[in-house]
Write a structure and sequence with these properties.
608 residues, ABC transporter transmembrane region fold, Rossmann fold, 3 domains, 4-stranded antiparallel β-sheet
Length: 608
């Protein structure tokens, strides 16, 4: 009973995925399937039935009945004209298919990219989601879309050709229908083969992802130094070999099943029906003498063509089942519903921001990252959120930006739960600089604006933003200044910046946009203490009348802030001004004293 339910569910899912494939292909490339079907019919139907059966039958009948050369010439002309028409449809269909394929990849790429940036951040910590994402992108990177279209067209054209062939053969001798029944088994076998292929590909996906990760990191610049100066490459290479070996075992396991199915397919699709038909037709022609030469030739050719049609249909049905599964992966990816959703309100200018009794635990984490956190930020204030690594500071930023929602408590923006606001309008009010900043293989200006620099005003905005972040000195020294491409990956005239310079460029993004609240998560992690202090002075000067939150385990920002919150173990352990916290002699005072002594020691070493 359970097995039947499972099979019924699988059939339903297969049908659902197939219909979805039709839907997404039609939406992304409206004329693809139509042109592919027209092309296949023009080729297969004309070749398999009109040319090799009808043409053969008519010409042999003319010869048998003593027809004239004129009759023969006319029929040859008719079939030649049909051949030219078939070829014209074939060529035009190929042209449309090639154009539509580009349209499909363009439109589907856009959809996949758009969805990828809309999913919850927690998806990137979920291996199951990554597997789905990997399988979904295979529709784009591999030939699954064109394969589905091709095999669908093969089913239509092959089915049409097969119907005409069967009807014609039965009109000559209905008993041959019994021989044809054995060919139907081929369709079933090929369908099973498709199911086995799907199971094999699903089991191989995690190992494919491991291989792709190793291949990707080996060529990325940010990993290059560690790859060369440590033994990590051997570990990565070992992982790669393990993934290859695991997939080899999977292929070996399923290869035995596929081999048996191939043998059965060949037996019922080629050997038995063709041999039996030849024997039967030869018996009627040579022994019974009740079969004409033309009909004998037509039966032989038709059965050979039917063998190919049934084999192709079986392969196509099995392949459609397999390809539909890939489109099912795409469907699951697109149907993923974010748990972090926005409301209908538009965020106004910031007046207050408050965390009230907020607690949060990451998915699959054993202990909470924030516990009953209470914070309040007022318009125009500069606040430092400090603490040791792992104290919960970055988690606080992720909740504020709505990468996640709190498990308990509420975050209020102007007294309203931030879940009531649209996510875009809320984030538009914020400017952020992350500790794991990234610069892209684009020009400095494009990295700052996060869009193309199109006008003189755009260029002025870039220059002002670079000045405010302190990156102007290094950028102006570049050959093409803000038009210089960062990294030489795509431009030999590009340049590389130091970690500190890159961080300043990343910080410039904040100054290139209008914002009410600036959130700087470890914005100076790549800077030395002196450069860090100067950067904070510059930032404070450039963000006057703005609300600023500094997140750091280094305390240069804290001295210059109006208020300080000290995180420890996911809670707010202390709060107050620099002077108040130093007098209290708590966690902050201890951290500041240790860091100050470290800085003095470094300065002494330099003087020596």
């Amino acid at each position: 009973m359970k097995q039947k339910k499972k099979q019924k569910k699988e059939r339903f899912e297969n049908l659902k995925n197939t219909l979805y494939a039709f839907k997404i292909i039609t939406q992304c490339a409206p004329f693809m399937l139509v042109s592919q079907v027209a092309t296949m019919i023009a080729y297969w139907f004309f070749t398999g039935f009109v040319q090799e059966i009808m043409f053969l039958k008519v010409l042999l009948d003319i010869i048998e009945k003593g027809g004239t050369f004129g009759q023969f010439a006319v029929m040859v002309g008719v079939f030649a004209l049909a051949g030219v028409l078939s070829k014209a449809v074939d060529c035009f269909g190929d042209y449309v298919c090639s154009r539509q394929m580009k349209v499909f990849y363009k439109n589907l790429n856009r959809r996949v990219f758009k969805k990828a940036v809309e999913v919850d951040m927690q998806c990137y910590e979920n291996p199951d989601f990554y597997d789905k994402y990997q399988r979904a992108t295979e529709i784009i990177s591999d030939s699954h879309y064109s394969d589905f279209s091709y095999f669908f067209a093969m089913i239509i054209s092959g089915g049409l050709t097969g119907i005409f062939l069967i009807a014609y053969v039965i009109s000559i001798d209905a008993k041959i229908l019994l021989i044809l029944l054995s060919m139907i088994i081929v369709v079933i076998i090929e369908s099973v083969k498709g199911k086995v292929e799907v199971e094999k590909d699903k089991k191989m996906t995690p190992h494919k992802r491991s291989k792709a990760y190793v291949k990707r990191t080996v060529f990325l610049r940010e990993f290059a130094k560690d790859m060369r100066t440590s033994g990590i490459f051997n570990v990565m290479h070992s992982r790669y070999k393990d993934a290859v070996e695991n997939n080899r075992e999977i292929i070996k396991k399923y290869g035995k099943k596929m081999a048996v199915l191939e043998v059965l397919s060949g037996l019922f699709g080629t050997s038995l029906p063709v041999v039996i038909t030849y024997i039967y037709a030869a018996y009627r022609f040579a022994i019974k003498r009740n079969l004409s030469i033309s009909n004998f030739s037509v039966i032989m050719t038709a059965m050979s063509n039917l063998k190919d049609v049934f084999n192709d249909l079986g392969e196509a049905i099995g392949a459609i089942r397999k390809e539909a599964k890939f489109f099912g992966n795409l469907r699951e990816f697109f149907e993923y519903e974010s748990t972090v959703t926005g409301g209908s309100l538009e965020a106004d200018e910031l007046e207050t921001l408050e965390f009230k009794n907020v607690s949060f635990t990451y998915p699959s984490a054993k202990k909470p990252s924030l516990v009953n956190v209470n914070l309040k930020f007022n318009k125009g204030e500069t606040t430092a959120v400090v603490g040791k690594n792992g104290a919960g500071k970055t988690t606080f930023v992720k909740l504020l930006l709505r990468f996640y929602d709190p498990d308990e408590g509420v975050i209020l923006y102007n007294g309203v739960d931030i879940r009531e606001y649209s996510i875009k309008s809320l984030r538009d009010r914020l400017a952020t600089v992350f500790q794991d900043y990234k610069v892209f293989a684009l020009s400095v200006g494009e990295n700052v604006l996060c869009r193309e620099v199109e006008t003189a005003d755009d260029a002025l905005l870039v220059d002002e933003a670079l000045k405010n972040s302190g990156a102007d000195t290094c950028v102006n020294a570049l050959p093409q200044k803000a038009q210089t491409v960062l990294t030489r990956e795509f431009d030999e005239k590009g340049t590389g910046l130091s970690g500190g310079e890159q961080q300043k460029v990343a910080a410039a993004r904040m100054f290139a946009r209008a914002f009410d609240l600036a959130v700087l998560d470890e914005p100076s992690s790549a800077l030395d203490p002196i450069a860090e202090y100067k950067m904070y002075e510059s930032l404070i000067s450039a963000t006057q009348d703005k609300t600023v939150i500094y997140i750091s385990h280094r305390l240069s920002s804290a001295v210059l802030s109006d208020k300080i919150y000290v995180f420890d173990g996911g809670t707010v352990a202390e709060s107050g001004t620099h002077e108040e916290l130093m007098q209290s002699g708590g966690i902050y005072s201890e951290m500041f004293t240790l860091q100050a002594s470290s800085y003095k020691s470094q300065e002494g070493s330099v003087d020596d």
